[in-house]
Amino acid sequence: MAHHKSAKKRIRQSEKRRLINKSVESKIKTLYKKVLNLEDKDELEKAYKEAVAFIDQSADKGYIHKNNAARKKSRLTLYLNKMTSK
């Protein structure tokens, strides 16, 4: 267990960040799956825009790496293009 005041503060900060990161990752996964399970074009585009916006915000705030965000958006875009070209 930490004895220094600064170490105790660091533990509190780390726990707070861990919970935020966990919730962001969970929401990204939920939005990602939501897009991949849709087939209706209108709903698909709406869900796609929501997912991409949230992924961009997460990358800007540093919750996920920018290349990770780019990869997720790329895969969603490929799926969207595949479904709308039918």
Report the order of strands and helices.
HHH
Helical content (DSSP H or I, runs of 4+): over 70%
Number of helical segments? 3
Largest sheet properties: none
- Compute the separation of the termini in Å: 59 Å
Radius of gyration: 17 Å
**Low-confidence runs:** none
Number of strands: 0
Structural class: mainly alpha
Q: Estimate the mean pLDDT confidence.
A: 95
Please indicate the percent range of residues in DSSP E strands (runs of 2 or more). under 5%
Backbone shape: elongated
Account of the protein in words:
The chain is elongated. It has helices spanning 5-36, 41-61, 66-84. The chain has a domain at 27-84. With 86 residues, the chain is mostly helical.
Q: Topology of this protein?
A:
Layout: H1 5-36, H2 41-61, H3 66-84
Helix pairs in contact: 1-2, 2-3
Explain briefly what this protein structure is:
By secondary structure, this protein is mainly alpha-helical. Helix content is 84%, strand content 0%.
Which key phrases capture this entry?
0% strand, mainly alpha, 86 residues, elongated, 3 helices
